[in-house]
Amino acid sequence: MHEMTKGSNVSLSALSENAGSVIVGLGWVSPSGEGDADVSVLLLNTDGKVRSDADFYFYNNPVAADGSVQLLGKTPTEDGNEDRIGFDLTAVPAEVERIVVAASRYEGARFGELEDLRVTLADAAGEHLLRFAIEDAGEVSAIIFGELYRRGEEWKFRAVGQGYESGLAGLATDFGVDVDDDPEADGGETETPAPVESLPQAALEAIPSPRTPEDRTGAEAAAKKPAARPRTAKKKVTLPKAARKSLAENESWRESRLFPVSVLKSDRDREMRATSVLLSVMAQVPEFGRRLTAGFGAPAGRMETFTEVSLPHGDTPRRPDGVVRVERAGKLWTALVETKTNGNALKPDQVQAYMDIAARRGYEAVITLSNDVALEGSPLVDVKIDGRRKHKAALRHLSWAEVAHQAQMLIRHEGVGNAAHAWLLQELLHYLQHENSGCHGFQNMGSAWVPVRNGIDDETLCQGDPRALEVVESWERLIRQVCLGLGGELGQKVLPVQRAKRGTDPGARRALLADRLCTDGRLRAELRVEGAPGLLGVTADLRTGKLRTSVEIPAPEQGYPLTWAKRLVRRLEDAPADLHIETLVEGEPGGPRGTLERLRPEPADMLPKNTTTRITGFRLSLLKSMGSGRGNAESGFIRSVDDAVNRFYTTVVVHLDNATPQRVMTKERA
Q: Hey, which end of the chain has fewer CB within 10 Å, N or C?
């Protein structure tokens, strides 16, 4: 990988032959685990300005209509997460000369508070081509990490590292964007569609012609209307929050489904049905198909999908479960798909064969789908890449939990283009979540789970035991799946947090956590939920068989301690009576504590006896017994962790002050 220094530049074609589509990743490490930033992209003409405000892509305008830019959101990595941006450089308009890639912080936060600021760039095959580390961020609230720019017929990348004290709004204004800087204005530009009276019927009528005359009329009107200043994205079609009253005569009647599951009797049936259902919806719902493939380097274009394709391979033809093809400007992007359901593991020889076929035929990727969750630095399947081949295919993985998460985010929160698409995604989600589909996500802690639990119980588990490392990896997979599930329900970003002091090397970090598991018998994790007042902690104590979910909230900056205590108790009026509340005091390991049931009549019991002691915050915790089994049954460990996190958020965290204001593009925020 090419290491860059500030001000240096490099030609992308000199680094890779697959640089027509690239993924840029911006990353950082927060020592506290709570720091974060937002990415943005600006397309500039020869004058160094945007052609219009539409050339400014940020959290409220994440996708270019021509597919040239797509903010892909945060992706878990070995040190927490990084923001990734997909660029289809072949689709960038000819009048765009430069593409600026930046990030910004808000509410007074500075980049000097973060560590390991870096930008990476990968080609269409997933190979990392370059890396640029920013060492001197300083007290700035916005930074240009780098820029892509044209030189003749080729694209180059320049490492910039330039900071802005005026934040995102100041940076955008310098490049000609007219931002809306009125923090008191309402959401203004949003549009709420009228309720859909009969969604399935509307869907059936719209499927043959996804773009209706009304759609074209609306698009033409929008094209003539002057563009609004960047503020909020236009709201699209989502499913009604409340279900319509059923016309069924009694509860024994079952609604007809587009994708039935009653006939599935074998693993092969499940794999074939799941592949066909998923790929057909990807082809019919552009927003969904694009969302699943953009992170793999696929361009924005016309997508077609196929199943049970026969491809020559030696003496025996191979039949991958599916094929995805995307056409743009006469060029084809192709991925082979291998699917597993019901907890079945991917077979290395199958995946290796498909990788060989893809490389030989010039295909871009092999996508594996299973219930397992891939971890960075710990591949699910080891394959050998023939370095003598000129063309290299990328190996990508999707978990069924991630597929369900993306469908949830679109139909319940972000919206899709029309009612037909919403209904199709709803049918897909119903299919994936049905107990007979086999697409239930990560559901087995592995063969090491029981021996490790027993070893902790009888104190025979020693540091360096490889079984402890296996359990730590399974725990990390489980936590990432919990994040996907909770994020899909809330419509918020939920990501695992890794502390900077644990290091950035995934193998070394997991080995350290495995050693800690051997000594104290605990598995720990922290989740960052957008909008929550603090990090959500999850601890599984294998010695006591207890799960603890908790959140720490800071003390208010103004007012009196007794007022804080009374207000907190009032807010938690509907929280579980067995909620533990602990007062955090400066310079001491712990303060007064008690259950909500005991503290309700006497909130003053939360205060330290020494009135001069400074209260720094409060820790709220719930305890429950954890499941003992390694699987996802009612009594299993996986189900108990998922239930504990959801119960804690829905019964405790929702009652607390929302620490994250609505994201409106204003100068004050930047």
A: N
